[in-house]
Amino acid sequence: MKRLVLIRHGESTWNKLNVFTGWTDVPLSETGVDEARKGGKILKEKGFDFKMAYTSYLTRAIKTLWLVLEEMDLMFIPEVKHWRLNEKHYGELQGLNKAETAAKYGDKQVLLWRRSFDVPPSPLHDEDKRNPRTDRRYEGVDPLDLPLTESLKDVINRMIPYWNNDIKPSLKKHGEILVAAHGNSLRALVMHLKNMSEEQILAFNIPTAVPYVFEFDDAMNLQKDYFLGDPDEIKKLMEAVANQGKSK
C-alpha cells in the first residue's frame, strides 16, 4: 500500500482577514501555527512515517510543512519545493477583501472567480509590482510559465504534469509522502485523483491543516481517501471555507 497525505497550509494572516491571497507571500497566523502543529500530532498518532515531502514556494505552505514534520520528529527527511504547487494566481483580486468584493460584484461573480473551472480573474499588468516575473524565488522558472492570473483549469494544467512526472514516481518509490500546499493546487490534484466533474470540484472545499489521506495499491490504483480528525469539526471547517467569498 502507498499513502499520499495532502495538507492545506494553516490559516494565514490574509485568510484571517478574508483577503484574496494567491501568489502573495504571507505568513501563518497564530491560529495557523496551532492548526499545523495539530495536523502533525494526529499524523504521528496515526503512525505515519513519511520518507519525502513536497511543498510550494510560498511561506505559509513551507512553514506548515516544517511545523508538521517537527511534531512528527521528521525534520530530517528530504523536501522539495516547486512553484507548480503554488496557490491559484488571483490576478488583480490579490489583496482585496473577499466579502467586500462580493458586495461590489455579487456573490455569484466572486464564486466564479474563486471556484469556477475555467473563469480567471482579470490578470495583473506586466508592470505590476505583484508580477511573479520580478520575484527572486522564480528566477529559475521560464517567464512564460509564470501566470498573471489563473482559473482552476490553468492550475490543473501546471499541477498534473508535476504529479505524473515527480510526485507519483516518488510515492511509488518511497511508499509514503507528504504534500503541503494550497486550497486550489490541492483541489486540482484531488479532481484528477478522484476523477471528479467540474460541478463536483466546484462544491469541494479543503479545510486548513487537516490531513487528507489517499491510499493506493502497489499498481498505484486509488483505493480510498479520507480526512483525519473529527468529522463534525471537519464539516464546519469546510463550510467556513465555502463561506469566505460571500458578502454576508
Termini gap: 45 Å
Low-confidence region ranges: none
- Give the topology string: H per helix, E per strand: EHHEHEHHHEHHEEH
Task: Report the biggest beta sheet as strand number plus sense, adding barrel if it closes.
Answer: 6 strands, mixed
- Mean pLDDT value: 94
The helix fraction, in percent, is: 40-55%
Number of helices: 9
Whole-angstrom Rg: 17 Å
Strand content: 5-15%
Strand order, main sheet: write it out: 3-2-4-1-5-6
Oligomer: single chain
Using the alpha-carbon principal axes, give the shape. globular
Task: Explain the layout of strands and helices.
Blueprint: E1 2-8, H1 13-16, H2 30-45, E2 52-55, H3 59-71, E3 79-81, H4 98-105, H5 107-115, H6 152-174, E4 176-181, H7 183-194, H8 198-202, E5 212-216, E6 222-227, H9 231-242
Parallel strand pairs: 1-4, 2-3, 2-4
Antiparallel strand pairs: 1-5, 5-6
Helix pairs in contact: 2-3, 4-5, 6-7
Plain-language structure description:
The chain has helices at residues 13-16, 30-45, 59-71, 98-105, 107-115, 152-174, 183-194, 198-202, 231-242, and strands at 2-8, 52-55, 79-81, 176-181, 212-216, 222-227. The chain is α/β, with parallel strands linked by helices. Strands 3-2-4-1-5-6 form a six-stranded mixed beta sheet. Helix 2 packs across helix 3 (59-71). The longest helix has 23 residues, at 152-174.
Task: Give a brief outline of the structure.
The protein is of the alpha/beta class and 248 residues long.
